Amino acid sequence: MALISKSKLGFFFSLDALLAAAILLGGVLLISSNYIARSPTVHVNHISQDLITCLSELEMGEVENSYVEGLFTGGTLSSSDSNSSVIEVLGKLWSSDDITIAQNITRELTEHLISSNYGFGVYANVNDMIYQRSNVTPTTINSAKKIISGVEYNRPVDGYVASASANQITSTHVETISFSPQGAGWRGRNSGPGWAYITKYFNISPDTIFTNATFYVSVHSDDRSYTTVDINNGACTINRNDNCFTGGEGAFCEYNVHGCLQHGINRVRLSLRNVGYNAHLHPGTFLQYEYELTESPADYSSFVSNKYYFDDTHSVESAVRDDECGAWQVVPFYIPPSATNVSVSVQVVGHDIYDYNSGWWWFGRFASWNGWRRMRDYDYIMFLNDDSPFDSDNHPASNEVYRYSPNQVANDLIDGTNTIIVYFNNYGDYRWGETEVSIYSDPFNDPSGSSYVEVNYTMTDNIPEYGSIKVTDSFEFGGGSSSDKTTSFSFPAGATDMGDVKANIVQTTSYSLEVSAGTSNPPGNEVFETPAARDVPTTVYIPENYLSLSETATNYIRLRDLGGNIIRPESTIDYSFYVPSRVGIGGVFSTAQEAVDDAEQRLADLVGPFFNASNIDTDVNNQSDVPSLWGPALVEVRVWT
Known about the structure:
This protein has six helices and 43 strands. By secondary structure, it is mainly beta.
């Protein structure tokens, strides 16, 4: 026999107005078995509501029942349960799958209260039965509901929880060192060719472990035998007549340079010989190396500062033929669409510039961006995202420095890929320099005196979360050569933020390039089109607002040469994304070790496809009666007749 304590005598179940005076001991419903076999619907409504109110307000410590007291004595219920309502304890037992005990408690406390003329049941989350008495076939059913927090099926409310984070991770990265189109070294003859010497410097962290390296070289130069590429002062060389080069004056070579690179400063020098034209690089010259790196999770700043140094381009005319020379170079840089407070400054340094002053007006003219121009007025020309010059100089000093402040360039900047192209003593296929001329850059020995573009901005969104790890990957377009090529990719499951996405274009002849991106095929968003003569960079940045991070979305990137020139299948897409290095609280376990094992396994499942986690920190806590940890859950009482 269950007895409700005297402190709860005020609760009662009202059947109807005629029985109200007969109801004693509020919260205890005694319905006579001699009552009519089928009660009106209003009675069922009151019974369900009053029963759930009683179970919600009555605390387990106030119940005078031998079965319940035995649960406390035997340790099935803890002292903290005595202050919990009956319905909260039933929810806790349901969450830990102790349904038998929950059924017994419900039977002990309710069975004698509800007449056999009624069927009733207690349920969690609609269809999980805690207790049910099905002695009557339902014709009229009513229910009352109560939300309880802190419980969820198969989530025990007492035990240990743990989170895990990796203090160190080892991952494989892909880095691309891009060489933009540049040259010149004009004409010459076999006994005295013209030369264009291009030198790039870059730094590699001592923490990297090289796993592979490939140099893609796309040149327009004389195809006789000479050393075309020198990496780190003879560590590796590539000759112009090596078997890897395919093509005539416009030639392409893919060369394995693993073992040629070194930690610290690396130097790559290209020597391009010419006897009939302007020697230069085509889009498609880039060095790509793979490496392993062990690092700690980082905090990413919203402020970004990049300095894009020019390569050193040195043009030398023929020693036996006075046929002029000149130097030119394309330099791309990138501004994300979400960047704010953008500040860009430019410095161009020329060495041995020739101040051309022809005689009569009809001599020394060239076909320009708009009609014919006099060479003597354009010994220096600089373009910025346009086919009309941003600046020019008709009387440069031999060694001249051109500086442009953020205010000067601000109105000419665009989102995405920006390009600068610089000409000294030449334009297009016309040249008028003397002896030699250079676009000077030596970023490690003379950083302040070199040619560069400095880009600063603030990111207001797309900032990786603290502790995220950057993952990089690269793949080739593949297929055949074509003037119109499209490839696609998806970001993997687990990626939380998008990093940079870039296309590296490989051509042996170029004219005017168009790059499009989007999540449909063909992609409908133009992200770059050549703005000026020769202005086809090797690398084009793909703005993130045209791509989707979802693993179920396909991102398409299209390259199209508007002049019908071939784009090679060795063209690549570099993309990066971020993965968390930690997992939060998981399940509740009976032991601390089980909770730790679970956290470490969840971390391994999350990061395993991308990197190896080591030096793992786990945070384990004992949790008990935390009302907001799980749920909420819905408990329902149904009564029928």
